Amino acid sequence: MTVDQPTGLRGTGPDPAPGPVAGVGEARGSFDAVVLAGGAARRLGGADKPGVRVGGRALLDRVLTACAGAGTTVVVADPRPTVRPVRWAREEPPGGGPLAALDTGLRHIRADHVVVLSADLPFLAAPTVRRLVSALRTTGADGALLTDGGGRDQPLVAAYRSAALRRGLAALTDAHTGLTGLPLRRLTAALDLTRVPDPVASFDCDTWDDIATARARIREHGHVLDEWISAVKDELGIDLAVDTKLLLDLARDAAHGVARPAAPLTTFLVGYAAAQAQGGPEAVAETARRAAALARRWAEESGTEESGTAGAEGAPGTAPDNRPDAG
Questions:
Q1: What is the DSSP letter of 312?
Q2: For residue 62, what are the CA distances in angstroms to 12, 46, 86, 253?
Q3: Sequence-separated (6 or more) residues with CB below 8 Å from residue 172
Q4: Where is the segment annotated Disordered (predicted)?
């Protein structure tokens, strides 16, 4: 079964929504993606694993954000609302296993290289996807996959040559009169693979303990701001490079130089001004710099008044009373 009409919340047309700019030397759409999201999640008690939220975002949405640079993204599962439009497909019969699902997904992509992903990778990000595709191209192997902290292969966090997958699947189909129920290793064992160690991006959520670990990690001090910004951008459907330090400095200047409530209001106004100008990151940076300079001038003026450097009639430490109602 194939559903061409995407069900993404951010768009309704038949083509995938634009994703992040591709890496240096990599044209956007130079690879496709197949995401396998139709498993039974038995170790989660049959829960809807792709819809489980980590950091306020569904696991499937986190994976779709990571592979947004793909030309075509096929999700093999029943359709659902997602963070961006995708193409939906379903293996026959449903629940036929990873090889049957992969074979179905490959029927709807055309690129020579395909990223194959599971839907339970909370820490996968676009740079890792690009790294896999780059490793595939530079090594000449059939595939490039991540290995976890124990050195174990993770074949559902990988980039493959589409032709190699199709040949392997065809051979298995002939040998077993079908793909239903066959394990993924039957395919990958026959491929020439290169390995990319990454214990973080390869972390997958098979149990509720894994979910708890992922939720705790993104709230650690070193990760929480990046995770929150990514979550907000996904929720609002925007793709904008955010200079976190610049905006935090602006918020600090507004809070200290004006008043604490001025911090969120000022950053909002900066974003609104940049949007009105139809600008990108450069416009945000420029408006932030202007607002920060204003906050510093405000603070300097307040400091001058408090110190009384412009004392009335030359009296040191006394500021003139220039109020309209002054006697």
A1: G
A2: 20, 20, 14, 33
A3: 99, 179, 182, 186, 187
A4: 1-21, 295-327
Query: CA-CA distance, 2 to 91, in Å (whole number)?
Result: 9
Beta bridge partners, 58, equal: 53
DSSP secondary structure string, 170-199? HHHHHHHTS-TT--THHHHTTS-EEEEE-T
Q: How far does Cα 309 stand from its chain's mean position?
A: 53
Identify whether the C-beta of residue 31 lies closer than 8 Å to the C-beta of residue 115.
yes
**Residue pLDDT, tens place only, 268-323:** 998 888 888 888 888 888 898 899 889 888 888 866 655 555 444 444 444 455 54
Structure tokens given for 128: 């890792």
Q: What is the DSSP letter of 82?
A: B
* Peptide linkage before 199 cis (omega within 30 of 0): no
Where do we find the tokens 């993404």?
8
Q: What token pair was written down for 154?
A: 């993770």
Which letter, b or e, does each residue of 86-105 get, where b requires 16 or more Cβ atoms within 10 Å of its Cβ? bbbbbbeeeebbbbbbbbbb
H helices present in the chain, as ranges: 59-66, 98-106, 126-139, 162-176, 185-188, 208-218, 224-236, 244-257, 262-276, 281-307
How many residues are there in the chain?
A: 327
User: What is the rounded average pLDDT of the residues 107-130?
Assistant: 96
pTM: 0.75
16 touches 84 (CB < 8 A): yes
Query: CA-to-CA distance for 28 and 126, rounded, in angstroms?
Result: 12
Residue 119 DSSP class: S
Q: Name the residue type at position 35.
A: V
State the DSSP string of 216-256.
HHHTSTTTHHHHHHHHHHHHHT------HHHHHHHHHHHHH
